Amino acid sequence: MARRKGIGTETVPARLLPDFGDLKDLEQSAPIGLLPAAERLLLIGLIRQHENWDGVACVIGAERSHWVQISANEAVSFQSFLTLRLAAILAPDAARVDAEAADDSLSRPERLATQLSSADLSGDGPAILGHLIGAELAAARPYWLGQRVALIGAERWVGAYRTALARQGVQIDGFDPDELAEAGRTALRRRDGKDDV
Fold first, then answer.
1. Predicted local distance difference test score (pLDDT) of residue 156
2. β strands within the chain, DSSP E
3. Cut 0.85: pTM above it
4. What is the β-pairing status of strands 65-71 and 74-81?
């Protein structure tokens, strides 16, 4: 796995807020994954704002989404998806998600390539986004099934994921990434004795 120079990594399971030192990326070997320190910071903000929070967080970044199992303030495991990078290529202007397309790909993810081809030929950006998110939800089912999910990311993406998950009866809490990042930075400063808040 390629590592970014100067950042370093920790292997999951790992405490979200390390006891000391710089905040590192989290990695795991099966499936191979890398959760960047910036996304880890958001999760630190989540557990700072919601003490003893156990469950699943879906952190929706610029190119990848990360489904993270959190227990006892640790990232236990995670799974990452390139859904957003694919959406940016195939449907860059999609402003909403086609919920029926998401349901279809969630039910039959093996048909994703065909579904994307049809939606692409018809110029249906919301359907492309729906099929991509639906296939992701099919693969991430062990993370969200029967769980309360924290959605963290830009409102455009949180809204799309919320629409698809709500149709599956998932309880969802949405969080502002800027607020969580600030809460995470405060937690790091407090750990280092640089903030009395």
1. 87
2. 9-11, 14-15, 25-29, 32-35, 55-60, 65-71, 74-81, 148-153, 171-175
3. yes
4. antiparallel
